[in-house]
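Exercise 7b. Backbone tokens:
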């Protein structure tokens, strides 16, 4: 069990916001809605890097792709 977590990389809300080019409030909303899984450490959240990569790769709900 410990080995699984040692290979994971966790990002802060600010880091995720920068990667996704959205505000930190948007990241908090995604976490609260369950669209972006997160782990709470004390008073802050950490988001698995793999979850961010998966969220960025998904097309939006309408099926439109930018570009």
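Sequence design result:
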């Amino acid at each position: 069990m410990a080995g699984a977590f040692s290979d994971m990389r966790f990002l802060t809300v600010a880091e995720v916001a920068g990667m996704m080019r959205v505000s930190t409030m948007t990241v908090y909303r995604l976490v609260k809605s369950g669209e972006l899984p997160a782990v709470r450490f004390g008073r802050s959240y950490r988001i698995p890097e793999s979850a961010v990569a998966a969220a960025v790769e998904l097309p939006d709900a309408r099926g439109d792709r930018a570009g």
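Instructor comment: The mean pLDDT is 86. DSSP finds four helices and three strands in the chain.
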